[in-house]
Write a structure and sequence with these properties.
The chain is an alpha+beta fold and 335 residues long. The protein is built from 13 helices and 9 strands. InterPro entries: PPIase_dom_sf, PPIase_PpiC, PPIase_PpiC_CS, PrsA_foldase, Trigger_fact/SurA_dom_sf.
Length: 335
């Protein structure tokens, strides 16, 4: 091979190499940028890419746009506040994952397989598959990156369960809770006559009708028969408006407040809720015994104890952690 041929071949190779470099340079730059740290927690990096996925997921969940994000509350924009909250959440999660690793807490093969099956189920359905694909595009994640976030969340849940498993409620705590929350364990049985209001134009007409029926009741007409005739609650009208037993927190507030203020046999005035106008009659009221609600109270106390114990550990771990944030990288993330 003569010298001239070598020069030509070298020149061709150089041009090919240059073309390759030009082609891959944007991808290299993108890769380097996405792998910059937004924070380092005990020597472990939270990447810009991971932060961006979680940040965009929050923005997507609440349906926020750039106009809203640019608005200020105090000395910060909503964008700054949300970014700080998301980053703080990821820092806490990184600390939790480190604790899980120390305790050898990880997902089993079966648990990972269940995640894969759930993702495949999303994808196999034409509607949910399209929505899932669109969601990944919106948050800027690949399927594997999405799966990684799910795995991390489940590991944190396993850590919580393992660490808090000994937080139990004693019989004394259950009894004390019952004694101090007795009013929460009262059940009311009530019936109602509903006059539905579907739009504001019906307000006056429906209220007038409710007042007319209430006067019929006051004049001695039978509540149950009037419910069967006039109530617009198709579920209960044939039963004379009977709603059965319910406790506080099971009905809309206005209805609940009225029902629990009545004695057995009493009938309310007109009560306005988001459903329309009601006339309410209380037909029974009873105090649930400790035995009837013991399991519920036990669950409530243990849930509270677990949360408080775990939160105290989180605060301890965070104080002990070495955390460094990179505000310039944080600012560079956009939706």
């Amino acid at each position: 091979m003569d010298k001239r041929t070598k020069i030509v071949l070298f020149s061709i190779a150089a041009v090919v190499l240059l073309i390759i470099l030009i082609a891959v340079t944007p991808e290299i730059v993108k890769y380097v940028d996405e792998n910059r740290a937004v924070a380092i927690v005990n020597g472990e990096k939270i990447t810009k890419k991971e932060f961006a996925i979680n940040y965009r997921s929050q923005i997507n969940y609440y349906g926020l746009d750039k106009t809203f994000l640019s608005q200020k509350v105090g000395d910060k924009t909503y964008e700054q506040q949300i970014k700080e909250n998301v980053l703080d959440g990821l820092i806490i999660r990184q600390i939790e994952l480190q604790q899980a690793k120390r305790k050898n807490i990880a997902l089993t093969s079966a648990e990972k397989k269940a995640i894969d099956q759930q993702i495949e189920q999303y994808k196999s359905d034409s509607q949910s598959g399209a929505e899932f694909k669109q969601y990944l595009q919106t948050i800027g994640a690949t399927e594997n990156e999405y799966k990684d976030q799910v795995i991390k969340s489940q590991i944190v849940s396993k850590l919580y369960d393992e660490i808090t498993k000994n937080q139990k409620a004693t019989d004394a705590e259950i009894e004390n809770y019952y004694s101090s929350h007795k009013s929460d364990f009262v059940e009311v049985k009530a019936s109602h006559i509903l006059f539905k209001v579907n739009d504001s134009k019906e307000e006056a007409t429906k209220k007038k009708k409710a007042e007319e029926v209430l006067q019929m009741i006051k004049d001695g007409q039978n509540f149950e028969k009037l419910a069967q005739k006039y109530s617009e609650d198709e579920t209960t009208k044939q039963k004379g408006g009977d709603l059965g037993y319910f406790r506080k927190g099971q009905m809309v507030k206005e209805f609940e407040d009225a029902a629990f203020s009545l004695n057995i046999g009493e009938i309310s005035n007109i009560v306005k809720t988001s459903y329309g106008y009601h006339i309410i009659k209380v037909t029974d009221k009873k105090q649930l015994s400790l035995n009837e609600v013991k399991d519920e109270i036990k669950s409530t106390i243990e849930s509270q104890k677990k949360d408080e114990y775990y939160q105290s550990l989180l605060e301890k771990w965070k104080k002990e952690a070495k955390i460094k944030k990179f505000e310039d990288v944080l600012k560079s993330v956009s939706i």
